[in-house]
Amino acid sequence: MALDLCDFENQARVAIKAFWQTRTKATLKQKTSGKSDQGERTGVTGGKNMDGFANLVVDIVKANGLPHAQIHQSRAVLTLPGYFRPTKLWDLLVVNDGRLLAALEFKSHVGPSFGNNFNNRTEEAIGTSHDLWTAYREGAFGNQVRPFVGWLMVVEDAPASRTPVKDKSPHFPVFKEFVGTSYQKRYDILCQRLVLEQLYSAAAVVATPRAAMTDGVYSELSAMTGLRSFVAALAGHIATEAASQT
User: Fold this and answer.
1) Does residue 103 contact residue 42 with C-beta atoms inside 8 Å?
2) pTM beyond 0.85, yes or no
């Protein structure tokens, strides 16, 4: 049976529109109340601006054979045990018959600051996966097959994220793949290598301008880190779990 990708392109456009609309509403609300956060942090602390992508994941799980799986999105039930720390809060968990089937992170990066924030996102992504897989090795989730672990990034498509960046490394050269690259391209490389090193089952990055609040337009940086690869990998994992129960 063919995998059902749940019309992911249209769903992604809806998710992108909701992403920008939610950020804008949160910013206006906090400015009106006189309690605005610093800079672009307002739109992040405003709440669930990535819910549209979580909805896509929910649809994929149900459409590919597991309509009764437990899909957790409430903060109170999103923690998993770690190895280097007691617990880690995820964005979405899928549990089936007491087994951890999938754990997903949805991240966003909006300007004007891209430099330090890119490094922070990178360190967080690597540390989170290393912690989970070590906990898995040590039996934190019981005796089960490897879960699907996904990382999805939405980055603002802006001049500052598209412009090539210079790096300083006075003692040893930077890897050539990073020389003269933009932050968007660096996210593309990051996602490719997160999967290559088996830190994540799938990792995707999409770029979208603020004007996408009206049309949901977005672009992908490569086939390897595009949404199709991400949702196909997830759908395949779900379908495999469903087939094992028949």
Assistant:
1) no
2) yes
